Amino acid sequence: GRGGGVVPDGDDGPARGAAVGLTAWAAARAAGRAEGRSTPLIAAAVVLAGAPAFWHLATLSEMYALNALFGALLLALAACEGPRPVLTGAFVLGLAAGNHQTVLALAPGLAWAAAPRLTRRHWAWAAGFFFLGASVFLHLPLRAWSDPWLNWGDPDTPARLWRVLTRGDYGGVRLHPDRPMGLADPALWLPGAAFAARVFVDQLSVVGAALAVWGVWAARRGPLGRVLLPGFFLAGPLFGVWANLEPGRPETAGILEPHLVLPLVCASALAGRGAADLARRWRPGFAAAALAAL
Predict the structure, then answer these.
(1) At what angle do helices 38-49 and 189-218 cross, to 10 degrees?
(2) Looking at the whole model, is its pTM more than 0.85?
(3) pLDDT tens for residues 158-188?
(4) Which of 71, 201, 260, 268 could staple 53 via S-S, CB 3.0–4.6 A?
């Protein structure tokens, strides 16, 4: 379900294609000119476009493909230099939260990557642009005050608006009364992490997952790596541990699938970065072999 989303749905085909293109471009920017651009472009595009959850959700008239597009756009802006892309990204982040709030998992990494190039004045402007984008949420109380026939959560007071924004009464993980279990029990961490690892290997393929793991190492010092690594961890594995979903339950796939879109965007960019690094080390025939394996 949408966390208070107010950005309208529509045909998700263009959003799907744009998300693939922007993710591939961000991976190429992260690889750098010295290592070539074709390998990360192809690897990131193939890994993301071939992920079953990404492809399936992009065929639905829902918010998920648009969430991938917003995430890919934020990665592309983070790969640019100077403060202006950061300010643009702050606005996009606020607007994207009106579509699906999981995009906020990118916020810590975006702030970490932007910190070296921002002054205090820039930070103030960035905060202003973020709230300008997030002002789309004002539609909810304004609409509620008109007493419409269908008024989910009746967010006409600050308390009820906060409950809608924090998904207090709905959301995929609330489909089962015993979940989510949170992070309070360390005994659940390892099973949750193992389940998340299996899911992402299934989505990315063994080769794509291996390239993404290598990309973690290759991108560890770059500015885009500061976005990709925490973004993937917060939106993917950490969510899997927190939700504590049982693999064998029939509702698990439906609950988990929408939450795979954003981490798949990050993982695909990491796979592109890893492919670029390996191509630099083992250039003869590597790109063709990796593409064939994917």
Answers:
(1) 160
(2) no
(3) 998 888 887 777 765 555 555 566 677 777 7
(4) 260
